[in-house]
Amino acid sequence: MITQPYRPVTYMIGSSTSNGMSTMAPMNPMSMGQMGQMGQMGQMGQVPQTAGMGTVPPQVSSGAPMTPAGVVTPTTAPVFEQSYIENIFRLNLGKVGTFYYTYENNKEWNAKVYKGVLEAAGRDHIIISDPTTGQRTVLLMIYFDYATFDEPLAYQYPGVIGNPPTTRSCR
Predict the structure, then answer these.
(1) How many Cβ atoms from other residues are within 10 Å of residue 116's Cβ?
(2) 111 and 100 in contact (C-beta within 8 Å)?
(3) Residue 90 phi, psi (nearest 5)
(4) Distance between CA atoms of 109 and 103, rounded to whole angstroms?
(5) I need a surface site. Which of 4, 48, 88, 140 has the fewest CB within 10 A?
(6) What's this model's pTM, rounded to 2 decimal places?
(7) Under 8 Å between Cβ of 130 and 122
């Protein structure tokens, strides 16, 4: 068997300039191991370029349109509040409502009805208060079934500006 002497190799990492010419910089084998530990990202969070490959395409946010020349055309997506129950409740704070709840596997009471002024609404809870006593109750939305109100509700449907006109009367 023939043994060859150890010869370290100097690797070249390059980038191209705006005129298309490549510039090369020597890189010692020690930093090559560090490069492998960093995965696909280069130093300082930059994506490494291969010599002669040209420029790196621009970063594009998901779904942004590009022209055939590769130019990203920025667009502003319309922002609509989605029609979730907590958003409907937030539009109707201060109104008196009746809130129906079901508590499964409860031997004492399975269903319960709460009536009060809607004071706050979060993603997972609402806070109502009794108008006569002022006592506040936090109710979890996980047990919520439905609510009724004796007055018209403010409701903003996603994509519609203002409340749509009512075409029928509810009794």
Answers:
(1) 21
(2) yes
(3) -65, -35
(4) 7
(5) 4
(6) 0.48
(7) no
